[in-house]
Automatic annotation (TrEMBL), chains A, B:
InterPro entries: Aminotransferase_I/II_large (IPR004839), Class-I_PLP-dep_aminotransf (IPR050859), PyrdxlP-dep_Trfase (IPR015424), PyrdxlP-dep_Trfase_major (IPR015421). This is aromatic-amino-acid transaminase. It is found in: Cytoplasm. Keywords: Aminotransferase, Cytoplasm, Pyridoxal phosphate, Transferase. It is an enzyme of class 2 (transferase).
Length: 550, 550
């Protein structure tokens, strides 16, 4: 096992007298957190053993306010759900010496896996090439727990689990959440999700009823619209600027809400992607977030904070010819550079934060987590126990071996810094290509500060068929021409929060996350050619080897 | 890679002229099925590439009837769901040479995994000890697909996917389903689930409305009750005998349904666990299934066939002192020994079958699948795409390496035969212990033919406190005394389909799946002691070191 990055730690004393590293002012070293872990009850490492994220928090939360109760928003479905009664019988398993003929758990004897190994990067040597050369192999045996080799193994992870996920990984997730967000109320909890799309689905079944409307950015993640629609929940778009959601506009919408004109009750939910928003790439500043939170307090709005891109915050954009900004000098500097989350300012417990490993480790893990008040986390867990169950134990074991047993918290922060610099490079590539290839009279953009998306506005009023053709028709026409030119970008209209609302803007979304640099460059070149052709700029249509009809 | 089990194949000619092995009359060899696979479109092996189980079926389904349409049962939620529009944009990716700046998929460059290896048993050497000695190591590299080493790899499996799951594993699942069940209608399809609990949750959201009632065995899987209840769906128990659900009783219930007395509409759904039912262990015979199916046709009932224990069908019980029945002589004999599924007799397409790897490979995979008509599978996929998404790619890769690339279909059947014999031994252990330790005047049982559960009836009328105490009070008293004696069994009342219905039976459920043989024996001994004490049999209360108060 590789040693964690050896950055100096300055421990500080918490109000409770417990010494914990202060994540926002001092560097953090994996082993320091590790060493300070409370003595854990070993029973929770067992098969399908219950655990509670409360027990994994390092700070004292005494004296902090308790979260508000949300009974007035909680659905009949969520209120009447009883959870899995058989899992509740697990409490008798702590009787010393008891022989269980109770739970219908298969014996691990019949899991046809003796060992699982992963080759992964050591801290500081994160690239694919370095991993090939200097990567280490982590191995999970079948009975490592019984053999005292590890606290997590195949026989445990590959069996049934609790909806909250396995204690081993839940501990790491809770510590990470505390380290990064330090929620300012007493009774916050984490529980695993099988990803944030499911997290939103479950949140809506808990907090919304058919006929409800939910606020969001006026352009928003289309899957959120599509998850909500069949539940009878429509989105109401809030105007945005370069920093995303506009608090005054949101306040105005709520203050003047006309249920009959809107065809829905005044919203009590805000769905927002505050950082590197999909599709606009906008990132709300700290001040913006505080202003939005205040509006939510004023109108008693509950916030669903969907944050897959939180750790894809990039280095400042210095422009095409300026030197790069220096990378974060320490873990503390890195954490400090991040925009504070809604969770970190949530004195009321009115935020359900959705976190995901998809963008920073692997979407194929299907492991995420939510952080919210005890009341809502308890409801979420009950629902999970009778629907999604726990995230795949196979994924949990893989993540735990990497994150807890190998990298530790500090190593993970190093990984996140690595990702940050990589995405910065990728973003700079797409911006350079845009500078080079796009006709600025037609296409305009702002450098994204976070996330995977570059959002390009097209001035449809300059289109030769405007105003005979509608915005959506022009969008369709440009889109198809881009395809003809051999590139795929997403149409802005696919991201309308509410397609019944009037839209007078036209955008395309391009991602710099997926393709290699030369493809990004070439893709944008093709996009530029298609736009020029479509808007009859410079060259005549049909020039450059492109004909109209194909 | 180990060679597949070398059992002779006799291929037969399908009505369509395509030569396929007939699973019910001839042995099946892995490579024969493998070799006959249709030439697959390679594009479907790619990241988040769409695929359709239709393309993986080997038989011709021409001339078979089409499934009925279920529009009259499909909910508003399911009808209005549009699916994930961005995933639909994937269709443009097949344009030759296209550069995608479209989908927000992270680059596999940032998946910190270079290689994943698994040590697994070779065919025929399945035990833990043998796997340690002679197991082989399967390895998935990061870019095996690009390097032509394999059709599935880390860069693909660990990225986003389609709700149906990855084509690689979906092919194997479809072939397996065809091999075992050969559904008798034309337009059947498979799609992956994240497990059957979620499958039921999604089926109910597709097919039931608040206020509905759903038929099931009068004792049923408690999580099914708990999944249904918050959706406003109550279960109506149908009387059972040793073969499970009684078709005549079901017909009578439906024919005389009184909505106002029942407090719910006449049911249009049957939830049944036909094989090794949880908790009763009952297995419906083929004739019983046909009779139930006919009742469902008569009353237009849609069937949810939940079959986690299908391959835990055991050898015939020969009694404590008789020699064991010989194991299946061939794959064909094994498949023939299995009770035919509802799916295999489903000429109407009125069955949604829920399959799961939980009991035969590992619950921690959180991978299962459903088989149903194209109409319902399409709705299921759409729902998955905006909620659960695909099962974890990490699990899918692990299962595929084992099932497709290593064992093949024939090797998997050998594994299932191994499991069958193992469960037979375990069942025989619990039955021997019951013969030895239980007071037959009070406790009676039937040998289970399938599954994980032994269902023991207790004659409460012999309890010293009867009739002063209710059945549930006596059950509670026995349960707590069993705990005192150091064993855990499940209370029958936890499995009431409907706790408002009158119950005049008292049962306990014990599992022989989990504990080693000596623990099963000792657990039943403790159960017997507790029952004797509770019913004041033989010894006085307080004898044997047990006192009343603890």
């Amino acid at each position: 096992m590789a040693p964690p990055a050896a950055i100096e730690v300055e421990a500080v004393t918490d109000t409770s007298g417990v010494t914990v590293p202060d994540p926002l002012t001092v560097p953090v070293k994996s082993n320091e957190i590790y060493g300070r872990r409370k003595k854990a009850d070993k029973r929770q490492w067992g098969v399908a053993a219950p655990s509670d994220s409360k027990d994994f928090r390092l700070r004292s939360y005494e004296g902090r306010p308790k979260a508000r109760r949300w009974d007035h928003y909680i659905t009949h479905e969520a209120k009447t759900r009883k959870g899995n009664s058989l899992k509740q019988a697990a409490k008798f398993l702590s009787t010393p010496g008891i022989i269980s003929l109770g739970g219908g758990l298969p014996s691990s004897e019949y899991f046809p896996f003796e060992e699982l190994s992963l080759k992964v990067p050591t801290v500081g040597h994160f690239s694919e090439a370095e991993t090939k050369d200097s990567g280490v192999v982590l191995t999970a045996g079948k009975h490592d727990l019984a053999n005292d080799k590890s606290i997590f193994d195949i026989s445990t992870a590959f069996n049934y689990g609790q909806g909250a996920g396995a204690a081993q990984l839940l501990r790491w997730i809770t510590e990470h959440t505390e380290l990064v967000h330090d929620p300012p109320y007493e009774d916050w909890r984490c529980t695993m999700s099988i990803g944030s799309t499911s997290g939103l689905d479950m949140a809506l079944r808990m907090l919304s009823r058919p006929g409800d409307m939910m606020l969001s950015e006026e352009y928003t993640f289309s899957a959120a619209v599509e998850t909500a629609a069949p539940l009878g929940v429509r989105l109401a778009g809030v105007p945005i600027d370069a920093e995303g959601l506009l608090p005054d506009a949101m306040d105005a919408i709520l203050s003047t809400w006309d249920a009959s004109a809107r065809g829905g009750r005044k919203p009590h939910l805000l769905y927002t992607v505050p950082t590197g928003q999909n599709p606009t790439g906008a990132t709300q500043s700290a001040a913006r977030r505080r202003a939005i939170y205040a509006v939510c307090q004023k109108h008693d709005i509950y916030i669903i904070e969907d944050e897959p891109y939180y750790f894809l915050q990039m280095q400042p954009y210095t422009g095409p010819n300026a030197p790069d900004a220096p990378p974060p000098a320490s873990h503390a500097a890195f954490l400090k550079s991040l925009v504070p989350s809604f969770l970190s300012m949530d004195t009321d417990g009115r935020v359900m934060r959705l976190d995901s490993f998809s963008k920073v480790i692997s979407p194929g893990s299907r492991v995420g987590w939510i952080t919210a008040s005890e009341q809502l986390v308890a409801l979420y867990k009950k629902h999970a126990d009778v629907s999604t169950q726990n995230p795949a134990g196979m994924s949990q074991l893989i993540l735990w071996k990497l994150l807890d047993e190998h990298w530790g918290h500090a190593g993970y922060l190093d990984w996140l810094i690595y990702i940050r610099l990589q995405y910065t490079q990728r973003r700079d590539v797409i911006l350079a290509a845009c500078e080079k290839y796009l006709p600025k009279a037609i296409v305009s953009w702002r450098p994204p500060m976070a996330g995977m998306f570059h959002w390009m506005q097209v001035d449809f009023t300059r289109h030769p068929d405007y105003p005979q053709k509608s915005i959506e028709e022009i969008e369709e026409s440009v889109f198809m021409r881009v395809i003809e030119h051999g590139a795929l970008v997403m149409r802005g209209s696919w991201f309308y929060a509410n397609s019944e609302e009037r839209h007078d803007t036209l955008f395309f979304r391009a991602t710099y996350a997926a393709a290699p640099a030369e493809k990004i460059d070439e893709g944008i070149r093709r996009f530029g050619e298609a736009v020029k052709e479509e808007f009859r700029l410079g060259k005549e249509n049909g020039v450059n080897g492109y004909s109209n009809g194909h």
